Amino acid sequence: MADFVAAIDQGTTSTRCMIFDHSGREAGKYQLEHRQIMPRAGWVEHDPVEIWQRTQEVVQRALTERRLGVTDLAGLGITNQRETTVVWDPVTGEPYGNAIVWQDTRTDKIAAELDSDGRGDVIRQRAGLPPATYFSGGKLQWILENIDGVREAAGRGRAKFGTTDSWLLWNLTGGVDGGQHITDVTNASRTMLMDLETLHWDQELLSFFGIPQEMLPSIVPSSDASAYQRTRASGPFGGELPIGGDLGDQQAAMVGQVCLRAGDAKNTYGTGNFLLLNTGEQLYRSSNGLLSTVCYQFGDAAPVYALEGSIAVTGSAVQWLRDQLKIIRDAAEIETLASLVDSSAHVYFVPAFSGLFAPYWRSDARGVIVGLSRFHTREHIARATLEAICYQSRDVVEAMEKDAGVQLDELKVDGGVTVNTLCMQIQADTLGVEVSKPVVAETTALGAAYAAGLATGFWASPDELRENWLEDQRWVPQISEEERAAGYAGWQKAVQRTLDWVQV
User: Fold this and answer.
1) FRET label pair with 277: which of 174, 308, 328, 387, CA 20 to 30 Å apart?
2) Calpha distance 352→312 (Å, rounded)
């Protein structure tokens, strides 16, 4: 009997392999970063070959360090940075250039044109997404129109599209030797190309982008051992291993946080923030700037939906203070600095470096720091950066409550920024609700492992997953409603200063 489940977590800045036991505790881990390629302002790329090489290495190292083999594993789950777009030749296995990352803004004109002639309304209704540079459909259109030979190759069956889950699954299951070209419903729901109700690629949406369906992967459930091939013995696992699950990273975090009931919500704090609310089998089409998305689909059960608020710049704002402004030496120092002052003294930092995502969706916005006087110090800017993370999350919560009529009474949190206890206290104060962090913080990889383990019988039911969830820390609001309202009013005023900054 296998004692563990493995997960590959292919993220924006790194790839890791994690191994979990039956209690959901980490039993092994290895992680490697990959390059962030920025050839022009607003362009962000990754090398798919480098990502595949890193994936093989982290798998081998995670297994070797724990002295495990494929027979010790019940299954494999995949989770990934969702909208990042790869196109490759299935005959040679070579990509047609670098992957275009979800943060990339080169498709701003494509997005603007979709909204100018009414096609954007169709996309919102069918795909649940606003036309934006964030999503894969525009990135794939850009590749077809700007990389020589790709459109012609697509017509000959020599160009395949996928997000990074598809790229890894194809390579893990054989690559040029019969690799499986698939994606799951959560990743497909981030393309602007899938009908949220039918869970199929939509021909009219494809026509908006000039995309031939032959390029696209088959859409399968998020957890279903029969839908996925096994890994090849020649691959990094050194044997045939059942692949049981595949989810986009934020949906995987929902599963890892066991947010499996309607009304459950979590916020993941990473490069950006991603706040999701489980809406059950009810599909809500947002009228307040949120995304309607598939939360997960287990086997042949009905899909579970979510409302999502995607925020582009949160943890990366801390990196900006460190790397560009050099206000701090490392990410941990921001908490020390920010704690030296009681407040930001009416300074607001809106880090709209790539425009504003949810709930505004303004690609014309750019970052601002407002309210400065000679009195202010780097300590105030540090605290304003933490407040920006939390105010952006409140923007999303306000929109969710309007869309779904759900009043949040608790927010589960995970991701790297949650080690910053001051930031989490500010989050509780900003929202006016309690904030709860689990013992196992690696919820994205854990969710992929849970999906695989449910599919392969390692866990019998979601009830076992609920038993695994344990709280590590809780933050309770400590400021008055008057202070909360005044702070948020200032934030909303600052957001207005970011708008109409660039011509789209």
Assistant:
1) 387
2) 8
